[in-house]
Structures are given as C-alpha cells and as structure tokens.
Fold this sequence. Notes:
The chain has seven helices and 44 strands. Helices cover 11% and strands 29% of the residues. It has 561 residues and is mostly beta strands.
Amino acid sequence: xxxxxxxxxxxxxxxxxxxxxxxxxxxxxxxxxxxxxxxxxxxxxxxxxxxxxxxxxxxxxxxxxxxxxxxxxxxxxxxxxxxxxxxxxxxxxxxxxxxxxxxxxxxxxxxxxxxxxxxxxxxxxxxxxxxxxxxxxxxxxxxxxxxxxxxxxxxxxxxxxxxxxxxxxxxxxxxxxxxxxxxxxxxxxxxxxxxxxxxxxxxxxxxxxxxxxxxxxxxxxxxxxxxxxxxxxxxxxxxxxxxxxxxxxxxxxxxxxxxxxxxxxxxxxxxxxxxxxxxxxxxxxxxxxxxxxxxxxxxxxxxxxxxxxxxxxxxxxxxxxxxxxxxxxxxxxxxxxxxxxxxxxxxxxxxxxxxxxxxxxxxxxxxxxxxxxxxxxxxxxxxxxxxxxxxxxxxxxxxxxxxxxxxxxxxxxxxxxxxxxxxxxxxxxxxxxxxxxxxxxxxxxxxxxxxxxxxxxxxxxxxxxxxxxxxxxxxxxxxxxxxxxxxxxxxxxxxxxxxxxxxxxxxxxxxxxxxxxxxxxxxxxxxxxxxxxxxxxxxxxxxxxxxxxxxxxxxxxxxxx
Length: 561
C-alpha cells in the first residue's frame, strides 16, 4: 500500500510539474502572439514585434503590385516600429513586380525573400544589408542587373540560382564565401569579378554557367571543389572552358599550376590587363551640355562630394503618351519611376531629393514612385499636376513651399519622418479629401497649408502634442475646406485638447485614432468606381464627358471617348 501511495504521490507531483511547464510554455506562446501585430501599407504586409519595436516585411497583400516600396518606419498608436528585415518569401512569385526599393533600416533579406518574380529586371541591395539567407534573390528570371551591398560577408547557397538573364556581377570586397550553387543555371552570366583577396568557393557555385571572364583578386588559388557523385556525377566547379582569368600579377604562375583554374581557363592574365566593361546599369547617367545628367527620360544633378543626386525633371519626348486630348503634348507625362541610386563613371550616387518644380504642370501624371532614399521634396514639385494618390515614403523630412499647390491629388499618406511642411503646401487642391500625417513630432501646420482645398473632410494626425496653426491673416490653414463637416482623428489623450484649441475646433467631429481603424487611408477611403462622379480639370461635375477631353473620376484621370 505504501508503495502505491508513494507512486501516486510521485505521479501527482510529476503531473503538477508538467502542467506548470505546459502553462509556462503556453503563456510564452500567448505572450509572443500578443506581442505581434500586422499592418498593411501600400500593398505590403508587415509583422510588428512590440517587444523589440521592430517590423519585417512578410508578404504582399496586393499580388498584382508593380512597385514594392518598403517603408523605413511604421507609426501607429502603439509606437514607432523600425523595419529591419525582408522575411521568408516576402516578395515571392509576384507576377507584375517591376521594382523593389529597400530603405536603409533593412539589414537582412530572408530565405527566398525576393524570389521568383518574372518582371523584375534590376535590383539594388543597399549598404545597410549585411546578411542574405539561402535563395534570397533566386529565380528572378529576367534580372539583368544587380548592385550588391558592400557590407555583405557572403553570398549564401542558391542566392542567384536560376537568374537566367543575369549578365555580370561584381562581388564586394568583404565577401568571404560564395555559396553552394549560388549561380546555378545563370546561363547568361558572362563576367564575374570578386574584389575580395580572401574568399572561398563552395561546391558547384557556378553549375551550368558559361563564364567568359573571371576577375579574381585573391593571391592564393582557391582549391578545386567536387561534390557527391550520387547526385551530380562528380563534375567540377565550372562546366565550360572560360576565356580569360585575371589574377594578381605575382600569382599568375600559381594559378597556371593550380587544379580547377589551369584546366578551365584558356588564358590566365595579370589584373593590370583587365579593362572593366562600361557600366551597363539601366541607371547609368550621361552628362548633358547644360550640366545635368540624363537616364531613362529623367534629369539629375550630382553632388560629387556628398555622392548624392537630385531628380530635377523629365524629358517629355521620352514620356509622351500619344494620348488625344486638350493638353499640350509637353504635359503628357503619365508615369515616373525615380530610382534610389544612379551611376556615373561607375560611381554610385544616392538620390536624396526632388528638385523645385521638377514635376510641375504635368496634368496627365497619374503615378510617381518616390524612392525611400529621398529626404527632401522641393517647393512647387507637384504644382498643377498629379498624381491622385500618393504615399510619401519614410525618410522624407521636408515638403517644400507650395509642394502640392493646385495639384490633382486626392489622397495622401505623409510619412512619420516628415516634420516640416512648407507654406501653402496643399493649397487649392480641389480634389484632396483625405490626409494622413503620421509624424509624432509634427510641431505646426504651416500658413495656408490646406487653404481652399474645399473637399478636405478627413485628417488623421499622429502628433504627440497639438500642432500650432500658423495663420494667413485671419485665416487658419483649414480656411475654405470641408473641415466643419469632416472628421479629425488624433491621439485619444489629446481629443479634448484639440476640441478646445482655436482653429482645430473648426473640425465638425474629433475622434481618437483607434476609431479610424488600421490607417491605410488610400485603400480605405477609395470611392467605388461605379458610383464615382466625373469632374473636369476645373473641378466642375460633368454628366456627359466629351470625346478627347481630359476628366477625373475616382481620383484618376481619363480621356473621354
């Protein structure tokens, strides 16, 4: 009996311990779940970690997205989350994806993070990226040009596998390892240059490649590497005879006697004889007679000391849409894709600003992609032009004077980094109805900021304190808007203060931000296409559009037919 009781007591004790452990583990899981949330911005889904106040891109909500403009920060009522990673299969098999802009906050690209996208032709991996995981950039079958971060220390296994249109690649100085099958089936890869003087090449790194030129800065020949015969039949690293191998002058003889290298290269020459091919990046600039620099229909100026560039205009001949209508052909600019980096004489320049009036007067302008490298949008930039919907990316800190005055913008999401908006920034925007101001540090609303934008009826303001209103004479920044019948959303602890503050109390309804829900105003407030009214460019409602004239419906321009 005593034995039974003893066993029973032990069993009860063990069960209690196991139960306690289970509760502890379940509690941990529950806490992990509780500490994570999601937010969707500009068609991209982010997972937010409230413990570390970081976020990672996890997927695309819009599977038809063409431009993945990754934000640097996400600001909501729980705080500011810094986006630090592109997660597992985050941008995977997106049929229409043409460009990816990675902000300087991102340090990691996860497994297959940017993978299998059949329209992605160019890619720049910024210097903030220090790690890429297996297959990170694989199966982008039309990827022609890629710029790698100079802070990478390895190219992981399968990194560029099946990037069949990749022509050449320069591998940065800090890279110490080229991963297994890194360039498998890169059948158009002709030229590889490895800047490191000390690196290893893993098994079958260049399987089924047809290299013509290999520029190797290592003074010591890497050993020949073979793999298991059961899978590959014991082939060597390179599956064809390359033409020219360039190595340090003092190492030419060593390479001529080394396994792998002596068997697979017709000519082994000193580095001094290598002539680098002209930069074939699609963003390589040509200098113009007026001192500007030109590429793909866009003009830039360069600061050679700061290594920065400013976008200053477009070539209307390049962008001519050939559309019928009432406008001057010089105004027929419909889509502008501003790169984050441009190149001149093989040097990289970061695009940090949009110059004054650079997109002024283009009435057909519907879409502008602003890269996350931009910090300053100049005065008058979008005067009397589009686009209808716009997201100002994180990193931008200044919107210049009259930046969007008299523009056709309908909805705008202004990044949390923007703490300065110039006078008359959104004056006389006849279609502007919804604005998000994400900055927690916004100190003031400038003179005439929204004046005469009479359809403005929704404003979301994340400021940590009530911003000062700068008056234009007796008029507040909301003079002649629809604020009296509209809704202002602010931090819950400031609702009553806003209600008691002159100028802000012009708003008909003031509510806490949580009443607005997930802030994605551009998608949330979109008008149903079938119910949208039609307006001419003077803001007058039109019942019967005339042929070959320009109109606006649902925030988008179209030509009557």
